[in-house]
Design brief:
With 444 residues, this protein is α/β, with parallel strands linked by helices. The chain is 27% helix and 20% strand.
Length: 444
């Protein structure tokens, strides 16, 4: 996956040559359709998402929070037009040339008539993709060559990150969580109240400090000296919304030069409702990609979903459906620390993507029963104490667990494995573009 002598850090699903050729034809056809058919989007029926259309027959007087994307970055004149139709401005989303408004449902059709408006969609809910990695990924060989993520910033957009010893420098003199900010409405805390973001951050860059003396193994992340930027968007229940994720992505781009943010980890997602070309989350991740940040996204955990009779195919989540980003599926190691033992986990979402029919995921990485950091007092370890990894002295009786680590599974866990690997690759070759990084990973 990288030009290190460690060779293949990851594996990718085996796709028949005919399917790959077919995907290229599909991409070409999609490009033609999108460029030739943009005029269709000017019609009102193409400006409202399907889930908004379904709301129009709802209770009289109802309002809905919507993300409105404009042809240009919205000005006060744009907002005035929306206010004249009963809208209330809530957030600037200039990264995607949009804003968040609360609007009367009855005014949706009138708003769609504005020629300056490109698309209107709800502020949809997003959530986590949760259901001895180093040897399988060959990270240990990268470490032996002196690559540990030093100098590379990884932005983790998740449920927050606790300040723990494993996320400090090797001498414990300073935290490697160099910046923290919350985008959760009404909650400025950047600590991890859910327990997901801390686990993800540990997979990216935990240095194993707490496990060296008290555990039977050292639980170290892939890039154990990388800098971590903590952007909290999920609450204590692991839920958030599109607009806050977009704001967090915008902040990562703004902080890019300050903390050398080269990687953006998104172990979260939601369902697909429209083409990636219109979806606001997809527009945001593309902006980060075009700014020079490698965006790594979870594929989703719906691989067992047969509700549509597809046996889990077509279940990739947003923004993993975007063709630019690196979309990561989860692999099961079957308790064997070799790449040859890896198989795609049954829960890992499968392509092609809905609507656009892109072949995804791009890569698979270990995501089954991954050990990483535990955020004390957070929701996950409180509800599931059986996931704790006990130290050599044993775990204390619940609820007073003395564990520093827990074991979780999901594409949420596979995604930071890739993010850490990207940090190692960029430390070795800082001049690589996101496209080049993706190409090297997929070729290896």
């Amino acid at each position: 996956m990288q030009p290190l002598k460690s060779a293949t850090i990851l594996t990718k699903p085996q796709i028949p040559a005919a399917a790959m050729w077919g995907s290229r034809l599909a991409l070409l056809a999609l490009f033609v359709l999108l460029t030739a058919g943009l005029s269709f989007a000017d019609g009102n029926q193409h400006k409202l998402s399907k889930d908004l259309e379904a709301l129009k027959n709802g209770p009289k007087g109802a309002t809905v929070d919507v993300i409105i994307q404009f042809k240009h970055v919205p000005t006060e004149e744009h907002r005035k037009k929306v206010r004249e139709k009963g809208g209330i401005h809530k957030k600037d989303l200039h990264l995607i040339k949009g804003d968040l408004f609360s609007v009367p449902v009855k005014m949706l059709d009138e708003l769609a008539q504005d020629p300056e408006i490109v698309y209107i969609s709800p502020d949809r809910a997003v959530g986590k993709t949760l259901d001895h990695v180093d040897m399988v990924t060959n990270a240990d060989l990268a470490w032996s060559q002196g690559f540990d993520g030093s100098g590379v910033g990884v932005a983790v957009i998740d449920s927050g990150i606790d300040q723990l010893p494993d996320l400090n420098s090797s001498d414990q003199s300073v935290s490697r969580v160099v910046y923290s900010e919350s985008f959760v409405s009404g909650d400025p805390s950047t600590n991890d109240q859910y327990g997901h973001g801390t686990h993800v951050a540990g997979i990216v860059g935990g240095n194993g400090y707490a496990s060296i003396a008290q555990y039977r193994a050292v639980y170290r992340g892939i890039a154990p000296n990388a800098s971590i930027v903590n952007l909290r968007v999920l609450d204590q229940n692991g839920t958030g919304n599109d607009s806050n994720v977009i704001l967090a992505i915008d902040r990562a781009i703004a902080l890019q030069s300050t903390y050398n943010i080269r990687v953006l980890n998104l172990s979260l997602g939601r369902g697909i409702y429209e083409s990636y070309a219109l979806d606001p989350l997809d527009q945001a991740v593309e902006a980060a990609w075009n700014a020079g940040i490698v965006v790594v996204v979870a594929a989703g955990n719906s691989g067992r979903d047969n509700s549509l009779g597809t046996h889990g195919y077509g279940t990739i989540s947003v923004p993993g459906n975007d063709p630019y980003v690196i979309t990561v599926g989860a692999a099961n190691m079957h308790n064997q620390f070799t790449q040859g033992a890896l198989t795609v986990a049954s829960y890992s979402s499968k392509g092609p993507t809905l609507i656009d029919h892109f072949v995804k995921p791009d890569l698979i990485a270990p995501g089954n029963r991954v050990v990483s950091l535990l955020a004390p007092g957070s929701t996950i370890p409180t509800l599931y104490p059986q996931f704790d990894i006990c130290p050599s002295t044993g775990c204390a009786p619940a609820p007073g667990s003395t564990s520093s680590y827990l074991r979780l599974s999901g594409t949420s866990m596979a995604t930071p494995v890739v993010s850490g690997a990207v940090a190692l690759l960029l430390q070795q070759n800082a001049g690589l573009t996101p496209d080049q990084v993706k190409a090297r990973l997929m070729k290896t």
